[in-house]
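Entry type: protein chain
Record version: 2
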Amino acid sequence: MLSKLDNLDILFSRYIRLRDLRCLECKVPGYDNSDGERILGLECSHYHIRSKMSVRFYPDNTDTFCHFCHGYYEENPEEYKKFKIRQLGLERFKELELRASTMMRLDPVKVRLEIRKLINNLE
């Protein structure tokens, strides 16, 4: 049985992949799942590890990559850092770093509502 956080991770990963629809590095698009969402073959990557609750469900901390590019950035964290700075700009990157260093408790009900709202805003 999946925990509440596991279910939220699945929902959030879906949101991130729907937001981007392609690998942000090599630009390969996702392909249709059974619901017609072009997200298969794509993965949700967390810049800061998921155990940091303050950024676990924070869009600026996550990116869509294909399996190959995701693995590359996992193995090359300095390259991922350069990517994030290019993507966010230095100020937003510093805000992400600050947020990642902050302790936070999550309310799963609130997080689910926020993710659903993000998904609805894509439509």
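Comment: The mean pLDDT is 94.
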